[in-house]
Amino acid sequence: MAKTQGQRSRITTDLDFNADGKQIGYLRLPHSVHRSAYGFLAMPIAIIKNGKGPTVLSMSGNHGDEYEGQIANSKLIRGLNPKDMKGTVIVLPMANFPAAQAGMRTSPIDQGNLNRTFPGDPNGTPTWMISHFIETELMPRADLVLDLHSGGSSLNYIPSALARMGGDKKRDAKIKALLEAFAAPISYVTTALGENRTSTAAAERAGTTIIGTELGGKGTVDIDGTKVAVNGVRGILEHMGIVKETDITRKRPKTRIMEVKDVSYYVYAPHPGLFEPVVKLGATVKKGQTAGFVHFMDDPGREPVEVKFNTNGLVLCERIPGKIERGDCLFHLASDVK
What we know:
alpha+beta, 14-stranded mixed sheet, 2 domains, Aminopeptidase, 7 helices
């Protein structure tokens, strides 16, 4: 990691990060293949700037099958007028471009999961080059990073915002204020579940603040999740002083602050088979309560295996495909902060 972090990214652009106005263009990700020896992948990017002020990096498509944030960011690019703002907004709508093009969680080129490759490698395959560029070139420019996720093809979430808190009262208060400004129906915080390969860890290494989202999923464009994303990004820009508040956004709803303490908040499949859930998204459950049953369709005489919740909480997330393998996440809970 130390060797690659000191190297310049091989990704380039003609856009000027210091110029006022709205610039919409591409990042050039070198990609030499049989059909194009000196070619590059053209990754969309926009820089919208007016004078001095805070800088927000809003990215989506970290996972390519998560669409709500991609649509919200495309609306942001078209809708922001530099004359009506103060500061800079950098928008990366298809962060893992090959994955987003394919509508897949991971890149079809190198199978890379962008949110598990930070800090990346400037000499690596495309996903690792992208994560290195984001961490070393984009994040250090930003006062705040928005990483807009949803459940993708395999999960469905109650539209939520999320962040990692570390016990520093001043920093945690800042994060709480940002979550309230985004105003998703639920905002959940974590402490112990973080790892060093994610965008959250990258932003922390880059010395900036980050909040994320889970905006729906099911492999579709969730209506409510997209609306939460559009309004949430606007709320953040207002909170940061980049754009002015409107009468509508002053009345933004109050978010429910929750937490995910540890791995007991997740329910995993104990066997491969067909999963029959018995609770719905948004249900309040208790430890030991039945979550569902794993059925063995190739052995119909075998009794199904009961799956139980490991803790009390709200069902924040549910699995979508009925066919499961051992280790698949079936449910994800959150509990109110006490």
